[in-house]
Amino acid sequence: MSGPRARRRTNAQPQTAMTDQDAASAIQAWFNGNETRSKLEGERVISNVEKGANGPSTYSSSSKFRRRSTVRMSKVIPNIGASQENNNVVFFAESKFNASLKGIIDIQGRMSEPFTLLVNMGPRNPTFDKDYSKYDTYLALHVDHQKAWFSIKRNGIQVNLTDMTDVVVSGMHLGLDPDTITTYWLSYDRDNMIIKYGKGYAMEETTLLICDFSEGVSTADKLAKKRNQWSTFFGIYDPTRKPASILLYRTPSDIDKHEENVVQAGEVAGFIHMEALIEVRKFPLVANPSPFVLDAAKATLNIIDKGLYTFSSELPTACKVLYDTMIKCELDLEFEMGVSEVRLSDAVRYSINTEGGILNKTLKTKNYLRITMGKGRGESPGIPYVLEFWPPGARSPIHNHGAVCGMIKILYGTIQNGCFNKVPSTVTDKKKNFRPQELMKFDAYKDDVLWLSPEWWQTHQLRNVSNDFCATVNCYRYDENDEIQWNLFDFVNDQNGEVGNFFPNTDFTFGEMRKAVFEEWNNRMK
């Protein structure tokens, strides 16, 4: 062979092994290359949402561009194999699935050194506590400082999964966040034969790795063969298999520190400090539910098919209680029934916009107002039912709700909801980079209803981006399985960039506010 092609082959350099740092840099290059494109797509999608589209339609349209592109792990980290597994780790903690080979495993703590999460197809063997590789059949998630990856061992034979694993282009760091408490999760989807890994809440937007064991299957026969091939790991019944065990392995030095839920200097105790090291939930991550709620009585075949809503019948029990109580609430109900000659919305707007008005004066010291309704009985953080007024430009800090269930109904105007990943124990990393990441944002309009639970839509920032005030009724209730009942909202302090606590308080009771603004309205000509 002669010519340019021959010369190029002669001059080619031998391929060298990729280091961990090289692998991390390669992945980051993919992320950076897609960042500008993703932003442009987002702007295009949002601007092209038809004029007058409702909140659920806007959420659905913008969600399409949020489905990030992926790159095959073998292309960016080609040399991961048995030799790169976390072999210097030892057994630390054990749990089990609540459903057979199905659910989400949360690892919550300050994991400062590499760890391995092992789904062992059988009971724990204490003689293997110093070497998990002695187990015969398992599926594992490995996380080190630079990366994360899956491995599998079947009947004593190691299987490389890098050719089956996709890295999601998200901009989030794949590996450890050693200087903060956060959540590392593994979704084990028995039915679809898919495993996923991510950090924070288990959502489509926080997914970092996807391994689909049925990828490329196009017929029922081929799917049946795949299921048979991987039945040890995804079969609901196997007479030869004993119940699977979930085993967490950590380095001895990290175990000695044992700091997974300790409040350190510069931190404020938050709900994340109270969470268990290992938590197992029954359902895997398949797809996000809609944050918008529709009364189940209004469901039609077409509405169900579009998937724009979570129906009221599907809500967690605590949300259903709140929904049934607040769904008929309206700001101007008394006027519309002929009981009052004045719209409450007009009186509220007048008090907000008029110098010296009671609401105007209060808003000089804060962004928005909390008007409580009824009394608290210990079933929620603070009083459970709150009417909130948002003047134009007002916004809340980024905050969670103590991992409670909640409902929000927009009574007047428009509110923008920015959804965030779980707030870790510290807001900035060692390089002073701001950690909280906005995953999406959408507008909600009058009569729209939003929901939240400990796992879904829990951390957000509300903003009034309109030219008029907005009114929302916000209500909260501890989930029936909540054994902690954290009575604070954890928020990102805008002034110092740290995590703080907010005990839900009261600016006015509803009766006080209603009386005051009606008096101001009636006396306005004087």
**Structure classification:** alpha+beta
Spatial sequence of strands, sheet with the most strands: 1-8-11-10-9-3-13
Percent of residues in helices: 10-25%
Q: Helical element count?
A: 13
Note the gap between the termini.
100 Å
Model description:
This protein is an alpha+beta fold. The protein has 2 domains: 70-281, Jelly Rolls (Sandwich), CATH 2.60.120; 293-328 and 367-506, Sandwich (Jelly Rolls). It is 23% helix and 26% strand. The chain has 13 helices and 26 strands. It has helices at 4-11, 20-48, 55-66, 73-76, 220-229, 231-234, 252-257, 301-306, 317-326, 333-336, 344-353, 358-362, 510-522; strands at 70-72, 90-95, 103-109, 115-120, 138-143, 148-154, 157-160, 165-168, 182-189, 194-199, 207-212, 245-250, 278-281, 293-294, 310-311, 369-373, 385-390, 405-412, 414-420, 438-445, 449-452, 460-463, 470-477, 489-492, 499-502, 508-509. The strands form 6 sheets. A 7-stranded antiparallel beta sheet has the order 1-8-11-10-9-3-13. Helix 8 (301-306) links the parallel strand 14 and strand 15. Helix 2 packs antiparallel against helix 3 (55-66) and helix 11 (344-353) crosses helix 13 (510-522). Residues 1-18 and 30-51 have low confidence and may be disordered.
What are the SSEs and their pairings?
Blueprint: H1 4-11, H2 20-48, H3 55-66, E1 70-72, H4 73-76, E2 90-95, E3 103-109, E4 115-120, E5 138-143, E6 148-154, E7 157-160, E8 165-168, E9 182-189, E10 194-199, E11 207-212, H5 220-229, H6 231-234, E12 245-250, H7 252-257, E13 278-281, E14 293-294, H8 301-306, E15 310-311, H9 317-326, H10 333-336, H11 344-353, H12 358-362, E16 369-373, E17 385-390, E18 405-412, E19 414-420, E20 438-445, E21 449-452, E22 460-463, E23 470-477, E24 489-492, E25 499-502, E26 508-509, H13 510-522
Parallel strand pairs: 14-15, 16-26
Antiparallel strand pairs: 1-8, 2-12, 3-9, 3-13, 4-5, 4-12, 5-6, 6-7, 8-11, 9-10, 10-11, 16-17, 17-23, 18-21, 18-23, 19-20, 19-22, 24-25
Helix pairs in contact: 2-3, 11-13
